[in-house]
Amino acid sequence: MKTPRFGLAALTLTALLAACGQPTPVQVPAPSVAAPSPAAPVAVNGRTGARYLRQQLVVNLPAPAAEALAARLNARIIDRIPQLDVVVLELPAADDALEVAALLNREGEVRYAAPHHLAEREPDQKTPEQAALGAQAAVNQTFDSLPQYALDQNHMAAQAAWDAGFTGAGVTVGVVDDPSDVSHPDLKATWSGKAYDPRGAGKVYTTAQSWLDMIDGLDGSVNGQVDPSIEHGTAVASTITAAKDGKGIVGVAPGAKFQPSMIFAPGSVGTAAIAKAILWQVDNGAQVLNNSWGGPGYDPTIKLAVDYALRKNVTVVASAGNSSREEWSRPAMLPGVIASAALDINNKKASFSTFGRHISVAAPGVDVLLAAPLFLNDDGSRKSGATPAGGSGYQLISGTSFSGPYTAGTAALILGARPDLDPYQVRRLMEETADASVGSSAGGFDRETGYGAIRLDRLAERLKNGPMPERGGTVRIQVQVKGDTGTYVAATTASDVILEGAGPDGMVYGAQTDSRGEALFAAIAPGKYTLRIGTPDLLVTGGKPEERGTYVGEVTVTSGDAGTTPTVFQLDKGYYNPFPTDPYEANDTLASAKPVEVGKATDLAYIFNKDYNATTGKDKYDVDFYSFSGTAGQKLDIVLHDKYYPSEALGNLWGVVYIRDAAGVTLKDASGRPLKPNTVTNILSVTLPSTGTYFLQVGAYTHLNPTNGEAPYTGTVSNSSQNKYFLELRQK
Question: Which of 134, 355, 438, 640 minimizes the number of CB atoms within 10 Å of its CB?
Answer without folding.
Answer: 134
